[in-house]
Amino acid sequence: GHNNQNKLMPPTSSTGIKYERLIVYSIILLFIIAGLLLLFYVIYMTLPTDNKPVRKELFFEDDSTSMSIPNLGNGHMVIDRHNWGAQQGVHGPYKLPHPIPYVLITHIGVHSENCSDVHVCSIKMRTLQDAAIAERSLRDIPSNFYIGGDGNVYVGRGWDTANAYANMSLAVCFMGDYGRYEPNDLQLSALEHLLTFGEKHNLLTEDYKIVAHGQTRNTRSPGIKLYEKITKLTRWYPCGRPGYKRCGVEIGLPTVWDQEYPKLIATTTAVSQTVSVHRTQTS
Question: Which of 121, 116, 120, 142 minimizes the C-alpha distance to 130?
Fold first, then answer.
């Protein structure tokens, strides 16, 4: 009886066993590959990289995440002078005519690290304003807007008051030293949203140009790492570089976009030229 039962059982061969093992190993290998792909995807999504696709949508008032703080969209808050603690009763001496034809990109420099939250950036803004008034004899903090490492925009002289460089430009300062550090994606996105807001509200000309501070005078500002970023922007204009005319010549800006030092006006030709243009534009 046992012999007959054994005859009914399927024969077991080494070839069949090898085939079953091959299937098992293949399944295990597929799981390993899937796990590695998932791991690489998680690493790619968590590590910062310049090659990531940038969100192109631009939102404005209807994208606010706060009921009390203005928002340019995509989380970029506008921190006004009151909120960062500006000195009261101080302002630049000249109005800023609209629409504005030039956007001037600067940085703080002097080994300044980027700030990462509203509290630290607000302290930096107060320090910058105090130094501008007490040490550099300026009427107010020099630039129109400041962009922190937190991706927020801090109001300096704003849209309606001329900056300390040239009164037919909008000066946007990146908070940090970008000869040493890389600007982050939040800052570049904040710049894009700020300028799009200005264009939408006719504060900037339709053909406004973006230039680096170093294209207008002998300075390292805004730092080589930031300069490399802004030269890739569609509105960047190569004036002041070899083979190109100086920046602003077509609208009568002075040869050197120098800072206003009121105590030195009588002895500094470049500053006198700047002040002359300011008075002409605001008269």
Answer: 142
d(CA 23, CA 65): 54
> Coil, helix or strand for 164?
coil
Q: Which helix (H) or strand (E) holds 145?
A: strand 145-147
| CA–CA distance, 273 with 265 (Å, rounded to integer) | 9
**What's the DSSP call for residue 161?**
B
d(CA 114, CA 105) in angstroms, rounded, equals 16
CA atoms within 13 A on the CB side of 60: 8
pLDDT category, 56, cuts 50, 70, 90? very low
CA distance 217 to 258: 7
Q: What is the DSSP letter of 220?
A: -
- Asked whether residue 121 carries a pLDDT value surpassing 50, the answer given is yes
Q: Can you list the alpha helix ranges (DSSP code H) found in the chain?
A: 2-8, 14-46, 81-84, 118-134, 185-200, 224-230, 269-282
Q: List, for residues 182-233, the tens digit of each pLDDT value.
A: 999 999 999 999 999 999 999 999 999 999 999 988 888 998 999 999 999 9
Quick one: which of 76, 73, 53 has its CA closest to 63? 73
In 3D space, the residue among 244, 245, 246, 169 whose CA is nearest the CA of residue 209 turns out to be 169
Residues 65-112 have pLDDT tens digits of: 444 578 888 889 999 999 999 999 999 988 999 999 999 999 988 888
Question: What's the rounded Cα separation, in Å, for the pair 150 and 230?
Answer: 19
Whole-angstrom CA distances from 88 to 57, 81, 82, 85, 172 are: 37, 9, 8, 9, 22
Task: Enumerate the β-bridge partners of residue 78.
Answer: 153
